[in-house]
Predict the 3D structure of the following.
Amino acid sequence: MGSWLSTWLSGTKSVYIGNASSVRDYRVQLRGSRSVILFGLYLIILIGIAMFVYSQTADRTGFTLVQAQFQLRQFTSTIMILLGFAVAIVAPGLTATSVVTERHRQSLDLIFSAPVSPKYYLVGKVMSSFRYTWMLLVLALPITAASVVLGGASWSDVLIAYVLMSLFGLVLTSFALLMSTLASKPVSAIIWSYVGAFVYSGFTFLLSTSYTLGRMFGASRDNEASWWVSMSPFSVLDTSHTYTQVGSLHVPNWIFVLAFTLLASKILLLGAGSVLGTSGGKEIKGLRIYALIYIATFALLPSWNARPAFTPVSSASTTAVTAPIAPVEESLRFAQEQGQYLALCTAPLLIFVPFIACFGFDREKRYWPNGVFKLKNIVDGTPAGGLPFLLAIIGTLVVAWNVGCWFGAKSALRAPFWEFAFYVTAFWTFFWALGRLISSFFAGLKTSRMMVFALFVLLVVIPYPFLVALVGTFTDDANPGPWNLYVMSPFMSTSDFSRADIALAYGLVLAAMAAVMAVIAEKRIRSKMVALRNYDVQPN
């Protein structure tokens, strides 16, 4: 035990302290005068904007003490927002091309021919880029220090705000690194990294808007708030001292953001490592195992807080004027609502299904078809483990959702929930089978994945606005119409209690279509494998 622990500690120390990849990148990035010029321009722009904003405040007269304090607080908020924009621009740009350029120079094989693991290499890339995020923040320290001296903020405000902005930069850096491993060209990596940065920045900003607006207009003066309000870099000054009450404890929200950032960065790095690693490598196994753990954890959060609309009413309290709603009817409605929420929570599978379903003969052998369903391959990243892993994801989500509702809402989920769970399983199995069928026609892995995305948009996204324009938002169950042909029809029904039945019917249809496509794809795959002359041994 002691020997294993010492070996693990030594390996971890070598990854995070004195990482050769990080040291090399840092020296290359600071070589020459370009970095000095860029940092100088950054400081000049920041100081110029700060002086302009402060002059607008200082030139005004007739302020009361409270108004002056508010203006100084606004001045500090402006500086913090500028720093947030700087981090959002610089963090993805420094990382997006780090791996794809190595691949273009054909130096990746040389790097991994040495005793270098993907984890060691990727952590070094993250550290070298994340260092720049802190350099941006440290260079701005004199300006934020002036804000503290003027009374616009306290040192604790500034330090916590710096921590929150650096965590925001770490997520963007990790995501950009994943895009750099997936992209085939530097331009593609840069575009997708900034798209991800824009979406994440906008999403976190929306999460914090309700709290910041409440503080601005005086609706809320309490520091208690949901932890995710602290994720946005554009409101860190307002959310730096927020907390979440856990039992009788006031836990600072930056602790939750820290935990979320570390978990998100780890899963993103495992995704990048699975691209660079070999079949059955530690990175691929770790990615899939951690994915199941994260899914179970995050599924417990909404389900634990779910509450049925009904409350048990005793017969003595009922009157002739207001009769109680039947608990059975409401429990069915509650089960159906949870089934719909479960279905919506599986939306991110759109990103993962093409990667676990498609195969191609233009890549390494780990991307070649090696069967339809093999449990032993569930965590090794080969096509045979794709369907088992997909079913494991959905199964973990369903079990965790039931556990959350049982302990949180004190309610067992009835038949409508299970009908939606079957519909969700059949829906994503259909797209898994579609990915295999497309891959049997195309030799290129990238082409097959893009075709699955395109067909998802064609079947799910595009029909919705056209159907809304033609027949309205909902469908009438008594009169069949165009909505009945839409694959998302279980969400469109006007009847509360028919949606689960429609979901079951659609699930059966999708499952049958998936089975047919899987059989056709398997026949084509076998004939294609026979035709391959150089195919010797399938990957295990």
Remarks:
- The radius of gyration is 27 Å.
